[in-house]
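Running this now, will post back.
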Amino acid sequence: MSGQKTFSVNAGISTGSQPGLFDGIASALQAYEKRQRQERETAIKREQDIQQKIAQFRSGATRKKIVVQQPQQVKSINTEVNQALSQDAQRQVQNLKMQLPKIKSEYQILIDRQLLDHASVQQAIQKTETALQNNNFTDAQTCLQTLDNARIQVIQQLKTEWTKQFEFLQSRLNNLQSSLPDHITQQLQTKINRMCNSWQSISDEEIEIFHQEISTHESQAEQVYTAAKNLVASWQEVGYVAKITEINDGDVVINIETHEGVNTQMRIQFNGQQIDLAGPHDEEGDSSCSSRTFDVIELFQQQGYQVEWTGWNGEPVDQEWRNVDMGIISVKTTMESDFNKIPERRSESIGD
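Update: finished.
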């Protein structure tokens, strides 16, 4: 197949196919629907496995609510002592009173995340308030210290869990890395690093959203690889040796032994919307490769893909030739001469 050719591709079947020109439309629809079912089943199974793994991290002691150990009964201070408080002590009491709303809100977040026991937190805060009302700075500090001890336990507990969570995310990215474009890998790695550095403020929802993001890229990589396997099968069906040779920056590369010593290469881009073909130039007297290439595209379409021929050697292909499944015989026999505007070659086939 001569030169550089570009095909746009979408999952699905061409609604513009005419009866008799694409007799495989029913089988294409069947293949497309089967592939869609398999992709849904794979996605459901993947999500179930992820949720099961996350649940293991959160189960048992890992997500046990921490109970605040209560201090001894807060004591009152008589009026004489209150009056005798130093200005510094009074200032400390006032500062704590001002900080208390913020302290309450910080501990409420831990309660809402099911990390601290609600009743014991409220009891410790009430004791703190009582101590402050009595201008008893020492007892107020003692109450707050019990809250802080519980918070430290929560942090230690969370650190253990988040370490496992981040290891799981990293393992998913490591397993997928060779199938992704470099810029996507770098973006995902940056997010993981940022989460690791700010793990104390990471929520369960953020972790699950990130898993979904990885799953989306994983599904895309699987779809592109499946398309490549279907394209290889199409080449093999018309009699060529073809195989997937590598995944390069997320694109799946196929090598086809179309010529002795010089082969044709096809590259399915990671976004799944374009196929690039690079073949030898100016092979005179050999129209079989061109003909078989279009046969391959037709077979590929019968696997539930809609394909348009959009570019040839950097130039756009006229709209009338883009639908590979419409007027395909004319394309095979006249496209090269029409493209080069050479009337005397209009009856010849495309050269490889």
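The two ends are 4 Å apart (CA to CA). More later if anyone needs it.
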